[in-house]
Write the structure tokens for this entry.
Amino acid sequence: MPDQTESIVIGSGPNGLFAAAKLARAGLPVRIFEARATPGGGTRTEEVTLPGFLHDICSAIHPTALVSPAFRELELEKRGLEWIWAPIELAHPFDDGSAAVLRRSVDETAAGLGADRSAWIDVFRPLVEHSSELFEDLLRPIRLPRHPGLAARFGFLGLRSVRAFASRFQNPKTRAIFAGCAAHAVVPLHFPGTASFGLVLALSAHAAGWPCARGGSVAITNRLLELLSEHGVSLELSSEVRSIDQLPGEGPLFFDVTPRQLLAIAGERFPRGYREQLGSFRYGPGIFKIDWALSGPVPWTAPECRVAATIHLGGTYEEIAESELAVWEGRHAERPFILFAQQSLFDPTRAPEGKQTGWAYCHVPHGSTEDMTDRVENQIERFAPGFRDLILGRKTMTTGDVERHNPNMIGGDIGGGANDLAQFLMRPFIRWNPYTTPDPRIFLCSASTPPGGGVHGMCGFGAVDAYLARP
């Protein structure tokens, strides 16, 4: 068991806070350094448009929270974290006024997919029946799986491209809704391994749903901070760490930063080969984000969209595939794939009475400075005519704005690094324990480590497990 030397966590994003919580619960003293004036990283909520309208700055819907062993262990619900589910987990509208939907029930989802009913059930029912065991493996580094049969079944399906996987479906709407889930990977849909992203997101919807947090994603941060305070953990805000020499003591250091940032801060502590690996880490495309204050609910043509917190706007599989390919190749899609959330429909704390919020982003090339406002709003108008008439206020963020708000999001990359198969499987690069470094004091605990982006806390837990397992 490690000694009682103070542990230091650099960065107070979800992974940094989860790392600190696991250390503190193990009885170890912890101090957190955060560069920004407010903690939370990707789980912050602010009034960025008009007074009374609460907007999630980054993460908004949390498909991996309730399937995460880290969330289960900390039991933040007992501290007042309240999850809110919409009647439908996901709606994906089409030009004819209809929508494909993803529901908690596999059978109810499949019933709406026409000729693909049996195909959807054949894929997801066996996985959902053992989802707890499966997520135990999926949300950890790829080593010897704890449940090899399940992992093999998932791997057989997930290592395919979306294009190959979707060919099993006859209904164009089934292919489209699966493509929308997989497009969260932010890589072209013909790349191998992209099917795994669609499988994980659809599986999480069936297993636990895609909730939002009452009061905003900042509620997750606040409950974590309360837990840490009870354990005597100190949080030092506006304390940017530029060099490892700034850090006191001789205890372990947990960096909730990306590899190139770790290189800048602590590169002199590593051998040349590891420095080269850190420097060669690849970041993915960025996002262009918009928050809206709205005078009323979005007038979606498809009625299913009015009872879903999450909407995927992209039309057909072919349109989504073209949009994601364009971004990967450094182009801006004319009809971008858009992730839209309308939390205030189900959480009245988000907006003044009778008013609503809108939250959306599209993928853009890494470091893009392009203003995508018109293209994003055109896509929304396509499926919700009259949307622009509701806008009371608007806040946009280019990739540079995203990075300034959270320095971990290099070039607007919100996922901690490019998700092509080679880098995703061996994130951040080939190493038996991806959280460790050649310096026994230094651990990496950001979304650049397994299992990657998302609010699940498992990168933080993984790094602490690596430390606690040392003799």
Observations:
- The chain has a mean pLDDT of 95.
- The CA atoms of residues 71 and 233 lie 19 Å apart.
- Residues 117-129 form the longest helix (13 residues).
